[in-house]
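Subject: Protein record for review, amino acid sequence with backbone structure tokens
Category: Structural biology, sequence-to-fold work with a learned token vocabulary.
Format: Residues in single-letter code; tokens as whole numbers, each standing for a residue.
Body of memo: The sequence and its backbone structure tokens, given next.
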Amino acid sequence: MMSQRFKRTSGAAAAGLALALLAAAPAEASSPDAWAELHARARAACIKASGLKEARALGQPVDFEASVLILVGGRWPQAHMNNARGTFACLYAKAGGTAEAQEITLPRP
């Protein structure tokens, strides 16, 4: 049978360990410069992932807990697409630094 003293000690130790782990977790983009750097990396990776020519980021990045959403617009590089415009939604993974882009159709006003 466990003593009350041991239960309290191990509970306090567990709480202390949990706080230490939380404090040691990396803080993503905690300063304005860090946010700007993260968004610049996300924009560059998403523009490349889109595969569009004359590609550029549209609007402002949208931050999620684990990723950044970037809209990318440009022109299709394939000859049969006749230089048509394309728009991609891209998710940039903050932890891995990878980007995944998929074409989207936005309603035109």
About this structure: The mean pLDDT is 81. DSSP finds two helices and four strands in the chain. The beta strands are 53-63, 67-75, 85-93, 99-103. Residues 4-24 form the longest helix (21 residues).
